[in-house]
From TrEMBL, chain A:
Pfam families: BPD_transp_2 (PF02653). CDD domains: TM_PBP1_LivH_like. PANTHER family: ABC TRANSPORTER ATP-BINDING PROTEIN, BRANCHED-CHAIN AMINO ACID TRANSPORT SYSTEM PERMEASE PROTEIN LIVH. InterPro entries: ABC_transp_permease, BCAA_transport_permease. Its main location: membrane. GO terms for biological process: amino acid transport. GO terms for cellular component: plasma membrane. It is found in: Cell membrane. The keyword Methyltransferase does not apply. GO terms for molecular function: transmembrane transporter activity. This is Amino acid/amide ABC transporter membrane protein 1 (HAAT family). It comes from Azospirillum brasilense. It is a multi-pass membrane protein. The keyword Phosphoprotein does not apply.
TrEMBL record, chain B:
The keyword ATP-binding does not apply. GO terms for biological process: amino acid transport. It comes from the Bacteria. Belongs to the leucine-binding protein family. It comes from Azospirillum brasilense. Keywords: Amino-acid transport, Signal, Transport. This is Amino acid/amide ABC transporter substrate-binding protein (HAAT family). Residues 1-21 form the signal peptide. The keyword Hydrolase does not apply.
Length: 295, 400
């Protein structure tokens, strides 16, 4: 039996797997942010709040309408996406001509309003959301007990992440989108409705946040504060991966999840800053991020 | 004890000349200060203000012709905001007494100010034993619980069941360390041992890694030395990872009924915890809870019930001495036993600690619970002298 710095390998494998699970959340959320930044040049600070709303919509569907997890998985991102479309149409779209900062300030304000409203109506302790029956229980992997639900989260978010990457990097629609970011006027001249495309992109980006919220609901408390806790880390992930880079967001999300998992074994006290240490180092060495392009 | 009593009597004699009712500024102003928007807003928050109002109503809203007024403030869990609010209240707002103040850091700041400015401070929310220990004050009363009581009650019960090997998952700040230390002391005193600990940052969402380490330690008990969202997330994920099913016990060292409500019984069932108050204890608590619920829309936590009890005791003392002079009122509060729906025969010790019975409770299973908020089985009553730290050992300079 070999030990690594006093940590038995079973524990290490367990922690790496858990890191992967957390990493898939980071990937899913930072993917949405990256898509929005890449296409709209908006730093969407409301992403955490929309993730929270995604979880709350799932909870409301269950408690008010009796619609379970699988319904929520489809409906909640749709509702959050529509909310995003409304926000983009009525507010964000007015700011594209201005500096990035204005978009950031607007979305930050929106996030505070959304969180404040939910806090007012539902309190801060959070609401319980049960794990769906089909995914209850777990597998004994020898080195750890893996709850089925966590396994499902990894699979689901990996599928969504790579699906999104494929759609943007490898399909015709994705090509239009990428072209529209490079030169919107020219793309519009070819007869493509750029404003609609941008609105749809924002809606899709926040729908990803809503989906992450539904996936998170059975693991964490559905609480108005859940987004605030996560959003800063997710921003760091996007910065490390390179603002706007789709692949960067996915790979960095998973990688940092693993790194955080390891930190929790060797020096747990530092687990909430390790991501930011990496961010500082990356910014010093490669300011555009690991996968970003210098503009 | 004796010295304070003598001081009180001497002061009484000095001021006896002006015997008619004296209430400063002709209003008794109670400032309820707590977290109204953050993680402790559900266990204290507006509910504590409602509890204080219920106490005031019992006096018809006025004493000796002076109206009782209740003001509230949000300290946002920041010690500096708490200190500024306390100064402003006392210097400019004519506030006579400050109540609640969960979050020990904020409470320690307020304790310093109320001590200097001679104002009564009724602490229901904060848990640090320093408040009735080395930072005690002749005007400060710690009412509902403290870290020692929480740790001692739960730890003793589990060790006595033969669960002697402990592992701690601890929030990495002063409060978590203090809770872990108090519990460790109790466990070791009863011949138990500590297999290890892991410290997590405040506001952690994912506990799976720490839970796995706790599981690998093969300890009998996993002690959760954290609170609020940290504690609920840890409990919820422990059930997800099958920790309790595999024979390890989970001990929430500071869990409130609002946390259990948030968790749901499915995840929280079987947890052992110590509490200073449970709404469904007897007719008196149920009757008071009905009044509280009509205004708050939910059942009270022990912190909120404690605010009621402390404010009521304060007002009774004001009524008895016919003045809101802090020295006289504090002396009266110390010499009177606390009798209300919260406690019977509660006594205030020299260090400001209110001694009352605590309860060891176990969270019901979904099958045992008859409805919303029917959450606790009271396993046993912990007598006051066993529940709280001996004042002589508290390190408080007022204890002679």
């Amino acid at each position: 039996m070999f030990d690594l710095l006093g940590v038995p390998p079973q524990v290490l494998f367990g922690q790496l797997l858990l890191g992967l699970i957390n990493g898939s959340f980071y990937a899913l959320l930072s993917l949405g942010l990256a898509v929005i930044f890449g296409m709209l040049n908006v730093i969407n600070f409301a992403h955490g709040a929309l993730y929270m709303i995604g979880a709350f919509v799932a909870w409301l569907l269950l408690t008010k309408l009796g619609l379970g997890y699988w319904w929520a998985l489809g409906l909640s991102p749709l509702i959050v996406g529509l909310l995003g479309v409304a926000l983009e149409k009525t507010m964000l779209s007015r700011l594209y001509k201005l500096d990035h900062l204005y978009g950031l300030l607007l979305t930050f304000g929106l996030a505070l309003i959304m969180e404040g409203a939910f806090r007012h109506f539902y309190g801060v302790s959070g609401q319980p959301y049960p794990i769906p029956d089909a995914l209850k229980g777990g597998q004994n992997l020898g080195f750890m007990f893996l709850p089925n639900y966590r396994g499902w989260v990894v699979v689901a978010s990996l599928i969504v992440c790579f699906g999104t990457w494929f759609a943007i990097e490898r399909t015709r629609l994705g090509a239009y989108l990428r072209a529209a970011t490079e030169n919107p006027v020219l793309v519009q001249a070819f007869g493509i409705n750029v404003p609609v495309m941008i609105t749809a992109t924002y809606g899709f980006g926040v729908a990803l946040a809503g989906l992450a919220g539904v996936l998170a609901a059975p693991i964490y408390q559905v609480s108005p504060l859940m987004g605030t806790n996560l959003i800063i880390v997710v921003f760091a992930v996007v910065v490390i991966g390179g603002m706007g880079s789709i692949l960067g967001a996915i790979v960095t999300g998973l990688g940092l999840g693993l790194l955080e998992g390891l930190t929790k074994v060797f020096y747990p006290e530092a687990s909430n800053i390790v991501v930011f240490v990496v961010m500082a180092i990356v910014l010093l060495i490669k300011p555009a991020g690991l996968f970003g392009r210098e503009r | 004890m004796l010295k304070t009593l003598l001081c009180g009597t001497a002061l009484l004699a000095l001021t006896a000349g002006a015997a008619h009712a004296q209430v400063s500024n002709n209003v008794i102003k109670i400032g309820v200060m707590n977290d109204r928007s953050g993680i402790y807003a559900d266990l204290a928050g507006e509910g504590s203000a409602i509890a204080a109002r219920l106490a005031a109503e019992e006096f018809g809203g006025k004493i000796a012709g002076a109206p009782i007024e209740i003001v509230v403030a949000d300290h946002q869990n920041k010690a500096d905001i708490a200190a500024n609010t306390a100064r402003e209240w006392i210097d400019a707002g004519n506030v006579d007494v400050i109540a609640d103040v969960p979050n020990s850091a904020a409470a320690l700041a307020v304790q310093g100010i109320t001590k200097d400015k001679k104002r009564i401070f009724l602490m229901s929310g904060p848990g640090s034993t320093d408040l009735s220990g080395k930072s005690c004050s002749p005007y400060g009363f710690q009412w509902t619980y403290d870290n020692y009581a929480m740790a001692a009650g739960t730890a003793r019960a589990l060790v006595e069941q033969g669960k002697k090997n402990w592992f701690f998952i601890t929030a990495d700040y002063a409060f978590g360390h203090s809770l872990e230390d108090e519990t460790t002391k109790m466990v070791k005193q009863l011949d138990g041992k500590v297999a290890g600990n892991v410290r997590h940052p405040l506001g952690t969402a994912d506990f799976s890694s720490y839970l796995l380490q706790a599981q690998a330690s093969k300890a009998d008990v996993i002690g959760l030395a954290n609170a609020g969202g940290d504690a609920t997330n840890a409990v919820k994920q422990a059930s997800e990872f099958g920790i309790t099913q595999s024979g390890q016990s989970l001990a929430g060292l500071l869990l409130f009924i609002s946390d259990v409500n948030a968790l749901g019984l499915q995840a929280a069932q079987g947890l052992l915890l110590t509490t200073g108050f449970y709404w469904d204890t007897d007719d008196q608590t149920r009757e008071w809870t009905k009044k509280f619920e009509a205004k708050a829309g939910r059942k009270p936590t022990m912190v909120q019930a404690g605010v009621y009890s402390a404010v009521r005791h304060y007002l009774k003392a004001v009524e008895a001495v016919g003045s809101d002079d802090p020295d006289k009122v504090a002396a009266k509060m110390r010499e009177t036993t606390v009798e209300d729906m919260f406690t019977k025969n509660g006594k205030i010790a020299a260090n400001g600690r209110m001694f009352h019975d605590m309860y060891l409770a176990q969270v019901k299973t979904p099958g045992e619970s008859k409805g919303p908020w029917d959450y606790y089985k009271i396993v046993k009553t912990i007598p006051a002298e066993q529940a709280f730290l001996d004042p002589a050992k508290s390190g408080c300079s007022l204890v002679k």
